[in-house]
């Protein structure tokens, strides 16, 4: 197996980089440290041209996000397989794929060679054309992400997202949306947040879409309606007890496509990437990337 490893030296568990090297270093392995100067799509294209067949994302959800966007620039016929070694703060998508947090066990899945074709989501808007694999979170979710500093991430770990929410809960902003979800239309609905979920968890293994599967050709639409403080308490309580979708403030459905307009404009984070452009359309790309996973039957 000829493999290309993108690694994030600054990821939450990057101190375990030595174990990563020991598990993956072969004469057929190319190593690339991920930074702003690296052209991921170009690097992958050159790797494929040279006969490469497996690209590995060693880092957190942000690293996986960068590699997914690079892979989607390669034609489906030539697109290499993807492996994930979770080294980040949250590793949400790796969790959905049943990939262990233990580095050696995650590498063992790659060596075992069991893959499944996972979906990705294509997101478009004015000046925007991107992909994501886990969750796009819009509205007040973005404000939580903006609260996070490197110090908070380091001190709180996966709980940093809950810590970031403290400053937002007392001043929730309302967004009036109009949405076309496949053949259903929603007009002038006041909301706190909209999530488009391909994976089950977001923001540090918080389960936001328990019924989502990255291998069913659909994504889950989660809409959190505007309300009062008591409504927010109910949402948080049900989330902590695994009954998030049972809240009266939460609407959910499965879809292949959604067109979304919001006033004021709703910004999103895509697997940790904050985008300033307002998304207009989300559409699933089924069976887009063959990926090394844990229990295949757990994805459906």
UniProtKB/TrEMBL annotation:
InterPro entries on file: ATP-NAD_kinase_N (IPR017438), Diacylglycerol/lipid_kinase (IPR005218), Diacylglycerol_kinase_cat_dom (IPR001206), Lipid_Phosphate_FormReg (IPR050187), NAD/diacylglycerol_kinase_sf (IPR016064), YegS/DAGK_C (IPR045540)
Domain DAGKc as annotated: residue spans: 1-127
Gene Ontology CC terms, in alphabetical order: plasma membrane
Domain of life: Bacteria
GO BP terms in the entry: phospholipid biosynthetic process
Family annotation (Pfam families): DAGK_cat, YegS_C
SUPFAM superfamilies: NAD kinase/diacylglycerol kinase-like (SSF111331)
Full protein name: Diacylglycerol kinase
């Amino acid at each position: 197996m000829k493999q290309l490893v993108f690694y994030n030296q600054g990821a939450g568990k990057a101190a375990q980089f030595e174990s990563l090297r020991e598990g993956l270093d072969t004469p057929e392995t190319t190593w690339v440290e991920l930074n702003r100067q690296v052209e991921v799509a170009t690097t992958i294209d050159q790797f494929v041209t040279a006969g490469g067949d497996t690209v590995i994302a060693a880092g957190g959800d942000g690293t996986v996000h960068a590699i997914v966007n690079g892979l989607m620039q390669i034609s489906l016929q030539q697109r290499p397989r993807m492996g994930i070694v979770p080294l980040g703060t949250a590793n949400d998508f790796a969790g959905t794929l049943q990939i262990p947090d233990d580095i050696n066990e995650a590498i063992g899945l790659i060596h075992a060679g069991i893959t499944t074709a996972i979906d990705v989501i294509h997101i478009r808007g004015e000046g925007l054309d991107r992909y994501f694999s886990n969750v796009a979170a819009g509205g007040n979710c973005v404000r939580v992400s903006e609260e996070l500093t490197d110090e908070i991430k380091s001190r709180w770990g996966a709980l940093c997202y809950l810590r970031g929410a403290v400053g937002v809960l007392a001043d929730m902003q309302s967004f009036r949306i109009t949405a076309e979800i496949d053949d259903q239309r929603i007009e002038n609905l006041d909301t706190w947040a909209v999530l488009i979920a391909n994976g089950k968890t977001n923001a540090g293994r918080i389960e936001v879409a328990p019924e989502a599967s990255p291998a069913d050709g659909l994504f889950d639409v989660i809409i959190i309606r505007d309300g009062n403080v008591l409504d927010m308490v109910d949402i948080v309580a049900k989330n902590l007890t695994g009954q998030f979708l049972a809240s009266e403030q939460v609407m959910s459905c499965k879809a292949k496509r959604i067109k979304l307009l919001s006033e004021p404009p709703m910004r999103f984070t895509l697997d940790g990437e904050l985008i300033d452009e307002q998304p207009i359309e989300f559409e699933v790309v089924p069976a887009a990337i063959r990926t090394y996973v844990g229990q295949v039957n757990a994805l459906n």
